[in-house]
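In the current project phase, the collection of sequences with tokenised folds has grown. One resulting record follows, to show the layout:
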Amino acid sequence: MKQSQSQNGQKQSQSQHSRKFSFAHYKSDNFFDEMFGADGEVRAGYAPFRQRVEQLTRDEMLSRQQAAERTLMSMGITFNVYSEGEGTERIMPIDIIPRIIEAAEWNQMEQGLVQRIKALNLFIDDVYNEQKILKDDVVPRDLIESSKCFLEPCLGVHPPKDIWCHITGTDLIRGDDGQYMVLEDNLRCPSGVSYMLENRELTKQTFPEVLASTGVRPVSDYPTRLLQMLQHIADRPDPTVVVLTPGIYNSAYFEHSYLAQQMGVDLVDARDLVVSGGYVKMRTTKGFRIVDVIYRRIDDSFLDPKTFNPDSLIGVPGIFEVFKKGRVALANAPGTGVADDKVVYAYVPRIIEYYLHEKPLIQNVRTYICGEADDRQYVLDNIGDLVVKEANEAGGYGMLIGPKATKKDHDLFRQKIQENPRNYIAQPTISLSRVPCLIDGHAEGRHVDLRPYILYGEQINVIPGGLTRVAMRKGSLVVNSSQGGGGKDTWVLY
């Protein structure tokens, strides 16, 4: 009898797994959903994908998911997490159900991002040169001069072609109304583009027939576009381009080596470069070679121990003076981080209007500036409903999500804000849009954001897609990989 029951249970389990995969029981739970409208109807861009995927069984979907994860690990696509005190190497979780963006929606987003990057570049150049925006008190002078990312040595600097922010990763979210908003600007050393590229390669293996028949814009030419942009900012024909990494222990080292390999340029660290005869030179087996362009993945403060942090062991002594004289191009230019400050972010709509005389095409999230008395008091009184962020932290660190935090955490952040109000902003807790994810063989919604990558060379070029980051933990709003987040391929349709 027991054996019969066991056999029946096994048959039932096998039957469940051999059933067709279906979105029929998927629930949006009243969040804005990327795949389904409020009426439960599938959005037009997703219709071909749904039709094809629902021809597969749950076992087939699980098998494809597992194959993608094995490929990630075998290719060494990992990142390091240091939050526990010692480095832990992990693969970035991937979900094989893509995020799909229709052409009209993307075109509007693209226009808004081009507008924003154009204005931010003018702002950075102004801050380090004429400072008109500070003299006109559109952005407070003390706000800029107290920013950790404002670098006095950059005053009077003119980078090649007057371009400061060559590579930007702008984080976008959608709230309950479905409108895109900018959550933050990443202009120092934005990471994650290697995951965007590898997610697409995995999708080609996972759903080759769907991808081929859907009309998805390519992203695989990103390394070519990146190299063209880097060559554009050089003053010499056939320039020597390198990628400068802090080294193998950096959390994004895989990305540094991957991009160098894809561009066909050298990956170097501080030991490979030297300043000699007024130029930056690379040690090679045939002697020293002048370097014209450096895509640096080292933060400003560690770039040059002679100019910035004297304790830096990963920088190149004297490189900043060579940069100032126009004998080497650095991407992104040192000092760009002044526009990366989360408090400066609150002024970006004003920055766009000041330089371009246009209204922002993509809005900011409503932001409370703790350095302003009225805003600060509002934050202190309503901290349980808000997300509080440190001005220069990234990766989900230095942040409080009020509704998820304890009273003790609220009190701790109130104290931090009162001690250093300049260092904090706060925003409403926004219910990020959701996309179906493959969870235990069926579709469940998970919150997402979107990081498109923008290259500024001869023109401003928005890569059609970007990295969709996913809060893999049920109910979580934190999408950062260092905090348990994962990624999805992003399909932008023609």
About this structure: Residues 99 and 490 are 5 Å apart (CA to CA). The mean pLDDT is 91. The chain has 16 helices and 23 strands.
